[in-house]
Write a structure and sequence with these properties.
By secondary structure, this protein is α/β, with parallel strands linked by helices. The protein folds into 3 domains: about 70 residues, no CATH class; about 60 residues, no CATH class; about 170 residues, Rossmann fold. Helices cover about 35% and strands about 20% of the residues. It contains 11 helices and 10 strands. Helix 6 links the parallel strand 5 and strand 6. The longest helix is centred in the N-terminal third of the chain and has 21 residues.
Length: about 375
């Protein structure tokens, strides 16, 4: 019975994942999912999924409620209007882990697993219970092994009675789990999100950034054990901020993109040794910049300082009625052949799907 229940539960999970895959592009654009994020789970509403349930009786027989009434007729008492004729939409909320969601994202977008660059120089020491010994604390006693040894002893000595199968443990029967310290390599990564918060970046553009950054985070956290996320905002000046400020700050004024790249360079130099950290940089903007000379300075900073130490630099340009939209062309003209530079345009929420695929298709 338990095995049958386990199989039914697995089948239900497969159905849920199938429904999510079918509507993945739509789910990527649901901002309320981010708001529902708990520690590890996200609640997703799915249409057309019913829990199995028992149904008693035979529909051909009369029973409770039998009579001459027709469908839609009110019961005794004063009803309010006629019954509806259209079937309802059954919506059920299911909880799914962020890891499962990231796996579905990777499978559907055919994203290769990321191979961390360099050697795993950071290690953590964990105790692994991988052997058995004859002594130890009772809290580590291995019951199955102890029982098996005691059973074998009673059978061999002829004291085992199948009609009264009482097994008494002796000291020599007891087996205990033993551990040894194991050094486990850790793949650590830092993600630096940079965003233009000048006057041309409105609430709609920031919502696109928020959605894309969430799914970038989900995919990278599935591939690395340790993730640091850092946030930089800029107009003509740049500063590091916390996550809440990054997504909700309102600024005004002009744009100087190189200010963000300089703050990013300083942040990486102070806190993240290139040989120990896999580095991912993402910049979000509407493509407006203060001058051509600053755009050239951005390319120099990327080429000489940031790209040599980074797995990936992703530039995502969001559509805005006020931005010039030229910076993506500058990046493509000057750095378009550099392997770890990827650019994408996100004009609407539907473009997020293709943008994420572009960023991680090479498995960097």
């Amino acid at each position: 019975m338990v095995l049958r229940i386990d199989k039914d539960h697995q089948r239900f999970r497969q159905i849920v994942k199938g429904r999510i895959r079918d509507d993945l592009r739509k789910f990527l654009t649901r901002g309320e999912l981010i708001g529902k994020e708990g520690k590890h789970l996200i609640s997703i509403p799915l249409k057309g999924i019913d829990l199995p349930h028992f149904r008693y009786g035979d529909n051909s027989d009369g029973g409770v409620g039998q009579g001459d009434g027709k469908p839609g007729d009110p019961a005794d008492g004063e009803g309010q209007g006629a019954g509806g004729e259209n079937p309802g939409n059954h919506i059920m909320e299911v909880d799914i882990s962020l890891d499962e969601l990231a796996d579905i994202l990777g499978e559907e977008l055919r994203l290769p697993r990321i191979e961390p660059k360099g050697k795993h120089n950071i290690t953590s020491v964990k105790d692994r219970y991988s052997s058995i010994r004859q002594t130890g604390p009772e809290s580590l006693r291995h019951f199955k092994r102890t029982f098996r040894k005691a059973l074998a002893r009673t059978i061999m000595t002829g004291v085992y009675d199948p009609d009264e199968p009482i097994i008494v443990f002796e000291r020599s029967d007891k087996q205990y789990r033993s551990w040894k310290p194991v050094k486990k390599p850790q793949s650590n990564a830092v993600i630096v999100y940079m965003m233009d918060v000048s006057g041309s970046m409105g609430a709609e553009q920031k919502e696109l950034v928020r959605l894309e950054a969430f799914w970038i985070d989900a995919w990278l956290r599935r591939n690395y054990e340790g993730i640091d996320s850092r946030y930089i905002v800029h107009d003509v000046n740049a500063q590091e901020v916390d996550r809440e400020t990054f997504f909700h700050v309102r600024e005004d004024g002009g744009t100087k993109i190189s200010s963000a790249f300089k703050v990013c360079q300083d942040l990486l130099n102070r806190h993240y040794e290139p040989s120990e950290w896999n580095t991912y940089l993402f910049h979000f903007s509407d493509g407006d910049n203060s001058s051509e000379s600053d755009s050239r300075e951005c390319c120099r900073l990327l080429r000489d300082e940031l790209l040599p130490r980074s797995n990936l630099f992703g530039y995502c340009q969001v559509a805005s009625a006020y931005g010039s939209g030229n910076f993506i062309n500058v990046i493509r003209e000057n750095l378009g052949t550099v392997e770890n530079v990827v650019t994408s345009r996100v004009n609407t929420k539907d473009d997020i799907y293709d943008s994420i695929k572009a960023f991680f298709a090479a498995g960097r």
